[in-house]
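Question (not urgent): is this output format expected?
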Amino acid sequence: MPRLGHKKSRTGCRQCKARHVKCDELKPCSNCARHGVQCSLTSDPSASQQGSASTAGIARDPPRRKKRQSAEPNTPNASAPSPSLQIDYVLNPPATSQSQTISTSAISQCSSPSSSPDNFPFLTRFIHGSDESCPDVWVRDLELMHHWTVEAYDQLSQREDMRHTWRVEAPIQAVNHVFLLHELLAFSALHKAYKLPERRSQYYTCGIHHQDLAIRGVREKLQNPTTHEEVALVATSTLLTLSVFASTGFELCFPDNPSSQGAIDGILNIFSLMQGMRNVTAMAQSHVHGSWLSPMFQDSADVIAPQPILHELINHIPSLASFVQSKPDLPSVERNVYLQVIGHLEPALQLAMSPKADNRELRFLVCWPFYIQSDFLNLVRQRYSGALAILMYYSTMLFAAQSRYWFMQGWGEHLMKACSEATAPDWLPCMQWPLSFIGHKHPYTLLPNPEAQRQTIGVTPANLMLPPFQDTPRVNAFKHPQPSEVTTPPADPRAKGAQHGEQPGSAA
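Got this back:
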């Protein structure tokens, strides 16, 4: 029985019911008007008619309860897949203590008029949003963007104009092109994963999350790109190639991971990506020149110090071609494929050896795959020894690149070992120089005597840009063995094509 002189409110607003205060049932009610929140009596007129049924018992309103439960998936009783497999869990991990819970949800609590009691009405009255709160995913993205602008961009180029382009111009453009924004965040997250091994799994998950979103965005835009999107697509494709090297390199360190792939299959997939992204660059070439990305397609104003490994590689090309040309048991079709691919090594090397070319290692690593035909890729995919031996020469530049570019870490060792283990012994004479790179802790130095080199090329110390490298391993160029030196190797199932006379065309 109600108290004398007290009138119960059975059709009050939801906000007053949640706060357990009496509602005067005005529209809006006085409590909601005083706190500056939206009253359900004005937003949902049917609420007053359903009020009595709501308060009579939970069993009388099962649909509403079901909706309330589905809106709170993070409750302890909610059933969900393992949180380690969810990007939301990584981006917004659950609190581990009561104080941490309060700190991470303070904004959402203050924004909810249903909190009881409201101890901060002087703040609540200025809230414009609804009661629902969103996870603080944006906090991690803000951290990654800050890391991009202060550190992650730094190793993309030695030139100040390109460093400005990546640090300042790219984030500005990314605001209008979400796929580019996701790629910046992916690259930044993978760099954090490299720098912080103790948190590598967390940042790697963030990196591939944004990388996936960037790829989906690029695929959608490539269907019908507009003029103002083409430059952003070129920038995204450039960074995507590097971030894929990083993410695949991390996976090579964990071969038991379900998403991990071997080094040979991994590099084949990256070659396919490079060739596809080349088409994107060709499509947008006319719009890139004169745009914010134009410095990437211009030579440096300064002379860039040479990379000795480029010269070493170009000196070994004739010996490699001679070995392939004179190998007696090699089918002619397979031999022609190898010689054609070897012939494309020198043009790519000359492009990277231009006096004012920066990022020399990356220029070669990206340009040579542009010339590779599908026949050669099929031979590599089927582990033909000759194709793997040629790929080992490409791997020498990965050794040079990984001493400077963090996203190339480990690629030289992984690919060189995978190729050497799958190659037949009769190809060993042409593999001596590439194999010498395995096991060298510090294989390169850019210039043993920088002063003498400056005098040779005739530039002043101020104009010579010296990226850090280590000493070049010096070995004698191999020679094709003389008939008296040739020993018959044991039968090896890896010597494909040589024993069976298979044609590359049948490899598809």
